[in-house]
Amino acid sequence: MKNYGFTAFLLLTAWAGSSSVWAESAPTASHPSTQVALMASSCANCHGTDGKLAGAIPAIANRPAGVLEAQLLAFKQDQQPNTTVMNRIAKGFSDEELKALAEYFAHIGQD
Amino acid sequence: MSNSTKDFSVSRRRLLKGLGLASLIPVVSACDSKDSSATANLSAPSPTQAKAGRVLVIGGGFGGATAAKYIKRGNPAISVTLIEPNSTYYTCPFSNLVLAGERNLDSIGHNYNELKEVYGVEVIHALAEDIDGANQSVKLSNGQTLNYDRLLLSPGIDLRWNAIEGYDQAAAELAPHAWKAGEQTLLLRRQLEAMEDGGTFIMSIPADPFRCPPGPYERASLIAHYFKQHKPNSKILLLDAKDNFSKQGLFTSAWQELYGDMIEWVGLSNDGRVVRVDAANLEVETEFGSVYKASVLNVIPPQKAGFIADRAGVSNEGGWVPVNANTFESTQVQNIYVVGDATLAAPMPKSGFAANSQAKVAAAAIVASLAGITPPDPYWANTCYSLLNPDYGISVAGVYKAEEGQIISIPGSGGLSASDAPTSIRQAEAAYAVGWYEAITQDTWGS
């Protein structure tokens, strides 16, 4: 526990440092990764936190960005047969937003 | 009032930056947990936390639990304390499966262990009794008074006792509402099990707005499923205070297909609005004087925001909470954010999914506000699954954004399951409903 506490202290310090750098570098506008993370958080309700939960609904984390983007666009354009709900959801995002979501989830590692 | 005050909803989330950070969070939390053997103690925030800010979250349902988790994910240095009377939260979603005998209550119960142990959220099991918005403090039933930099309320709903004559807390022990899951769910289940074949189950359904718009109709469907197997001569009568309801076409055509004439729905224009309940005799009277006798009576009464919203001064004359569409901060009291069923957030419905989605937006806004930066633009989503039987699912979905201070449904997105979908699609949606439940409860209470 003591070792943990020490490690945590170092990490907290590191975090506090990066936090202030981040705040200074983006004082007026939203950080792009924050914006995409908020948009992507909508996906967690069905795909689990960070898109990692695999069950009746598949995980979406750590899959190639190109595959995810093509899939999302196919949903949006009603080109994916037997779709239940993703066609209705994908239509709520621009193509650029879908691309950003695909890249976001592609970079999340699965445990 | 007292037994109707602990219910909640809310939501939204974020990684501040990069994924490296996310992987650090569990280690940091191991230190921050309120375990008395840990070197850090959240009750006395460390200097780093004091600088990052202190957030209190009231209500441990979909909204509050999600907000607590996602604030910690956004900035683990923020001190987050969740105030919730119960150690287990039973979800309204899937409680209709408990009524139908398809699940047990334990399977819809969720605790706060992972929020504490993985994310470093402090959890206090007490009732928040009063809020002083000017002094930024909350008084708890255990005698504590806590100060906050930001407060997030996810108070859920209170039932309006006596809004229907004769329907009060005592009546709810005879004619359950079961609109907050737990003991009420078990009571209604026992009554359905004890009912003789050939009996009549009556449900009184309120006008909009109320928690879970498709919920009463899913309940009718799943109880019909139970009757069809075990009490096939029974009837279901739905007395409704409105003329239109969520997914109406999908429900009514499936009722015919699956249950023949077992379910009868009477809308407002046909004298469906119940105005008086005689719980002792299991009788209800409608606006124009029709009296119906039930074998089992389920009264879902009109609702309002949980009482703590009134104490905080954030509710309006209608009993609901107006919020800033971009952040879900109260429009009436600064530094208080409100999410979930208690809010006026149309076109988003009062659903657990919406509460979770709103909590993530509010969490992002709180994290940004404490850091002194502009919050990200909000996005919300919603998908409400309803089960007509355990293998027949339908859904309504929506994607939302804020435009000129209003929440809008993004044109062309969302909508209902296709009315002409084949059986295979209904089966797929039923399976996805289960997948959704597993995912949203993990996203809300798990790690």
TrEMBL record, chain A:
Domain Cytochrome c, residue spans: 1-109
Superkingdom, natural source: Bacteria
Pfam families listed in its UniProt record: Cytochrom_C (PF00034)
Annotated signal peptide: 1-23
Record keywords: Electron transport, Heme, Iron, Metal-binding, Signal, Transport
A molecular function GO annotation: heme binding
PROSITE patterns given in the database record: CYTC (PS51007)
Alphabetical list of Gene3D superfamilies matching this protein: Cytochrome c-like domain (1.10.760.10)
Protein name: C-type cytochrome
The organism's taxonomic lineage, starting at the top: Bacteria, Pseudomonadati, Pseudomonadota, Gammaproteobacteria, Oceanospirillales
UniProtKB/TrEMBL annotation, chain B:
Domain Flavocytochrome c sulphide dehydrogenase flavin-binding: from-to ranges: 376-445
InterPro entries: FAD/NAD-bd_sf, FAD/NAD-binding_dom, FAD/NAD-linked_Rdtase_dimer_sf, FCSD_central, FlavoCytC_S_DH_flav-bd, FlavoCytC_S_DH_flav-bd_sf, SQRD, TAT_signal
Keywords, in A-Z order: FAD, Flavoprotein, Signal
Coiled-coil positions: none
SUPFAM superfamilies, per database record: FAD/NAD(P)-binding domain (SSF51905), FAD/NAD-linked reductases, dimerisation (C-terminal) domain (SSF55424)
Pfam family, one: FCSD_central
FAD/NAD(P)-binding domain sequence ranges: 54-167
Signal peptide start-end: 1-30
Record-annotated membrane-spanning stretches: none
UniProt domain Sulfide dehydrogenase [flavocytochrome c] flavoprotein chain central: residue ranges: 185-301
Molecular function GO labels: flavin adenine dinucleotide binding; oxidoreductase activity
Domain of life (superkingdom): Bacteria
Annotated protein name in UniProt: Cytochrome C
Origin species: Nitrincola tapanii
